[in-house]
TrEMBL record:
Pfam families: FMN_red (PF03358). Signal peptide: none annotated. Residues 3-147 form the NADPH-dependent FMN reductase-like domain. The lineage of its organism: Bacteria, Bacillati, Bacillota, Bacilli, Lactobacillales. This is NADPH-dependent FMN reductase-like domain-containing protein. It comes from Ligilactobacillus ruminis. Gene3D superfamilies: 3.40.50.360. InterPro entries: Flavoprotein-like_sf, FMN_Rdtase-like_dom, NAD(P)H-dep_reductase. It comes from the Bacteria.
Length: 185
């Protein structure tokens, strides 16, 4: 069973993205162990000595390194990722590179019709930076638009979206296996 880290790119306590990520954790519990990291209380990034990096950042970095992959659920704010997610990525790329060659699945819920398409594209570019170096599945997006209509209070998705999520997760598991095999060579 693969172990994944889930990161909701938000600090909003009623976030649909956090709810969806919790749902993903429960829905795929028989297939994968998904641990959710809370980045909402991390301090603002600033360059500090290595011994002054926040403990939460160091622990998160170790968990990401040990995981088989990472699942992001990001909202879209002004056609980009939220500041709290940018902050977390800045901390995680500062002294360490836990995302280096790490398979990543990007998801997201928004209130608009386009889902989080622009935020996901932006996140892809960020994760592709040399300081992060994540492994991204080509042409794989899980976009949920009109979140208030398509995501229930408990994070449950409507049937058509759930089918799409199942397909995306299956593709991600295949991708993770291929990355592992590539690393063994």
């Amino acid at each position: 069973m693969n172990k994944y880290i889930g990161i909701a790119g938000t600090n909003y306590s009623k976030s649909l993205n956090a709810k969806m990520l919790n749902f993903i954790k429960k829905h795929f519990a028989a297939q994968a162990d998904i641990e959710l990291l809370d980045i909402s209380q991390w301090p603002l990034f600033s360059k500090v000595d290595a011994n002054l990096v926040p403990e939460a950042v160091l622990k998160a970095s170790q968990k990401i390194k040990q995981a088989d992959g990472v699942i992001f659920a990001t909202p879209e704010y002004d056609h980009s990722v939220p500041a709290v997610l940018m902050n977390a990525l800045a901390w995680l790329s500062y002294l360490d590179q836990p995302f280096n060659a790490k398979p990543v699945l990007i998801t997201g819920v928004s209130y608009g019709a386009l889902g989080t398409s622009r935020a996901q594209e932006h996140l892809r570019k960020i994760l592709n930076a040399p300081e992060l170096g994540a492994k991204l599945m080509e042409s794989q997006e899980f976009l949920v638009g009109r979140g208030f209509q398509t995501v229930a209070e408990n994070g449950q998705l409507e049937a058509s979206l759930l089918k799409e999520l199942d397909q995306q997760f299956s593709a991600f598991e295949t991708f993770v296996a291929a990355v592992k095999k590539e690393g063994d060579q």
